[in-house]
Amino acid sequence: MAGNFFENEIRDSLASLISAGRIKIDKSSDKFFSELSKAFPSKGGKIDWSLVPGSTERFQAEKSLQPSDFFDFFEKVGADFKLAGEVSYAGDSATDFVLSCEFGDVRKVLNVLLEVPQHHYFAGANCSWCLCFTMEGGMGFGYRAIA
Description:
Helices cover 35% and strands 25% of the residues. By secondary structure, it is an alpha+beta fold. Helix 4 packs antiparallel against helix 5.
């Protein structure tokens, strides 16, 4: 399957989960981002968490600490909000595909996805919730803001 450098690296790293059918790939993220923009208010190309009732945010400016803080935020949000079920993942620039898998499998592949220099979006079914990591160190989570 053709793709750019980062997509190929992710496919190679996650090959066993993909071949086992635990991760599915949609070749285009256009529909994902269209649905996300209908569900969440945006500002400057990112979700405007200040307009998402009940959202939670964190920021880590120190680049070397971002990976561990991203993992901690992911775990905390997952536990606090009892996230489960299918999750769709898309990046906003370096990749153009959408990966879908169970929430528990996201934990197993998070390190691979976060190696790609882009903003990372994880969304529940029908964009009922979104968890985002930005390249600048922003982290946000909230439930669908727009009906």
